[in-house]
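# nightly structure sweep
# worker-07 picked up a monomer target from the shared queue
# config: single-sequence mode, recycle default, output format = structure tokens
# input follows
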Amino acid sequence: MSVWAAILAGGSGTRFWPLSTPERPKQLLPLTGDRPLLAQAVTRLRGLVPPERILILTGPFLVDQVAALVPEVPRANVIAEPRAASTAPALVWAAHRIGKTDPGAQMLSLHADWAVGDDHAFRAAATHALGVAREHVVPGKPLGSARAVRRFVEKPTAGRAALLRRRGALWNTGLFAWGVPRFLGEAGAYAQELKRAWPALAAGDAAGFFAAAKAVAVDVAVLERSQRLAVVAGAFDWDDIGSWDALRRVRRPDARGNVVIGTVTLGDDVEDCVIWAEDEHFAVTGVKAMVVVRANGHTLVMPTGQAERLKLLVQRL
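# output follows
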């Protein structure tokens, strides 16, 4: 049974303004090292999924950049989403396209903007998940080294998340594995947000499908509703790099807790800061727990822990 991968590479990455822009969003940036996140995601699949079986879903205006960034993936496999409608329509369309070529295939779904600490362990977890998806199809059947999912809770409040963790719940990283026919069957049965779009899907009409689909995450449209879920644990560091603060987790801070990228002169009193100088030299002194960024002709200065306020600010800009 062949394995395909769908890499979700849409989104504008507003939480990394001013470095990230709609024309160069987060997944195209080298946030964790020297290579863009998307290029790392493709490399992470090496030995598990060949490049010709990797699909990358992205915005229409990013197709050329994406194709140039990962030339090992056939350009025909870089799919433009006619409309940004979250992850459920994108993954259903990818599964439909795979099924036309390879009806019995399995499919991995992953995001282009993750930081993963151990690619080997990541591939091991993905292989384990594919095996579970292939072998265990009857609800209630013993799942061996996997666990049946009792309940899937998408984006719980902080209080509820803490309660779930105390009860032994696992954190969903967004790495999914499924058989293509089974996933399409579950989406057809449960994703009511896509019901009006299904005729366009059957007709292979991408524009019509995305136009008729309601914007909805696959987590809500399928996973919260399906009775055929299992989970396997992954033994690797993982971060979705959701804000500037995350760089202190995915890059090695200096002795004072600072992550500094670019040419920056620091005073001895700078502590626990994230500082990014894209193409200009500047100096920082007398600050603690701050984000200071100079990129694309703009400057950002804010305390750490203010990701939501930055998102609102970018909307105003």
